[in-house]
Each structure stands twice: as C-alpha cells, then as structure tokens.
UniProtKB/TrEMBL annotation:
Gene Ontology MF terms in the entry: DNA-binding transcription factor activity; sequence-specific DNA binding
Signal peptide feature range: none
Assigned protein family: Belongs to the LysR transcriptional regulatory family.
Ranges where the HTH lysR-type domain occurs: 1-63
Natural source organism: Vibrio caribbeanicus ATCC BAA-2122
Gene Ontology biological process terms in this record: DNA-templated transcription
Record keywords, A-Z: DNA-binding, Transcription, Transcription regulation
PROSITE patterns: HTH_LYSR (PS50931)
Residues that span the membrane, as ranges: none
Short name of one Pfam family: LysR_substrate
InterPro entries: LysR-type_TF_proteobact-type, LysR_HTH_N, LysR_subst-bd, WH-like_DNA-bd_sf, WH_DNA-bd_sf
The organism's place on the tree of life at top rank: Bacteria
Gene3D superfamilies: 3.40.190.290, Winged helix-like DNA-binding domain superfamily/Winged helix DNA-binding domain
Protein name: Transcriptional regulator
Amino acid sequence: MDSIYGSIDDLYLFYNVVEEGSLAAAAKKLNVPMSTMSRRLTALEKRLSTNLVQKQGRELVATEDGQRIFDLLRCGLEDLESNFAKVRADNQDVAGNIKLVIPHKLYRSRVSRIVEQFLIDYPKVSIELVLSQEQSFPLTQRDLLISFDLTGAEDMVARPLFRAHHAFFASPEYIKKVGKVKTIDRLAELDWLSVDHVRDISICEGNALVGRIEIKPKLVINDVMAVFDAAERGLGVASLPLMHMDENMNLVRVLPQYQRKPRQAYLIYQKRRYQPQALSILVDRLIHDAEAMK
C-alpha cells in the first residue's frame, strides 16, 4: 500500500530505527542493507517535509514530529503483534519448559495439586521445581517465583496470591525456662528462630497495628518446617504461619492476643509483552486458585 508515507514497510523501518537507536542496529534486526535503510528513511522524510530522526550522542532519536508518528505507530504495531501472537498460540500445542521456585511447605500444602493437574492437562510441558526459601528471581521468560519478599523485584511483575497469617509460638519447655511472656518488649528479648533475615516485625491486635519489635535471630533456617522443628525442641520462639500449624505439635502460643502483621505472598515473573502460553496458563491457574481460597 502506497501513500504520502510511501509503503507500509517504510513506516516499519522508521519505527525500528527509533526503537533500536541506530540505523545499523535496525538494519541488523530487519536484515536489510544499511544503505537501503538510509535511502528509504531519507525518502520518507522528504515526502513528509520534515526530519524524523536526529543524532543525540551516538544514538538516533526521534525529533518532535518523529516522536508523534512513532507513538501512533507503536500503538498500532503493539496491537497487531499481540493479535498475531494470539493467533500463533491458538494454533500451537501448549508446550515448553517452566521453572518454578517456591518454599517447600507452601508447595506441598497449596500448589502441588495445581502443578500436577497442569502436567496431566498439558503433557508436552515440563516443569522444574526448586523447593527453596531462598530468593531466586526469574532469569528467563519461563521462570516463576512465589515469595513473600519483593526486595529486588522492582522491574518484574508481582501478582498478589494470598496473605499468610502468623502468630508467635514456642515449646512449653522453653516457656518454662524463660518464664511467662507478658509484654511485647519481653517477646523481643527472647531467642528467635527465623526463616529469613528480617529484623523488624510489626505486631497487630486484631486488625490494628499496635507496635513493632526488633529481633535478633539465634537461628536462621531457610525452611519453615525446620523452624517448626527447632521451636518444638525448645530452641526459642518463632513467628509461624497458622496454615501449617498442627494441634499435635509441641508448641504453645505466646501472647495469644497478638499476631504478626499478615505477610503477602506474590507470584513473580519477568515483564514481557507476550508470555509463553504454557506459563500464562499456569499463572492463571495459580491466581484463580488463590482467589478461590480467599
């Protein structure tokens, strides 16, 4: 299709020059000789009677007129690419590899059945599970992380899953050794067991925030069940998720009128305009399950 803009290809060429920041990079991306790129861009500027790009340091950037045209093109091209990607996805089998990093106990209690059913429904997908409390941020477009900590995830997608409610527990033997705990200040002074290096803990009574304590963990273990075990054996006090509590555990609640501020769990993955279909489906299932359990 020809018009005052020349062919559609010329507009796409200009769009890529601005997006890549140079003729050379755009030529390489489009597999077009740089001389051809330069000639067609110059012809487009001549037809429009304006300069579309200008040098800024080592880069080519859009002029004011060029930026207006670029913004219009970007909206249209993103819609086209999105629809083309959907057409391709609808006509392809769901396949590929996914890596999921998640705390061990959380996987067993909430996520295992979702993953197992997903693999049954999509036999061409394979999943690598890393059961760990450690932060391992997604490095590729096929990586997922479930975590309570958003530190370092500012440039990623972080979707809320659920809120974990915690209270404070210790063994009867430990409480007998240290004496009855009557105040928040005394709670802070105890031997703390933790799954991470968080030092500041917000204390709530009901839904109201009533204080904050600073703790000094005696033992840090990157597995919540190992923290449960250490608390049962009388090594100290711990902030433990209520969803993992069992009445047969050798634990008693400390200051039962108080609890830790609920911790938000997030599903974290890389920002990308088009996610692999397998990853998108698994993300949707995890989000749907979390919403159903609220």
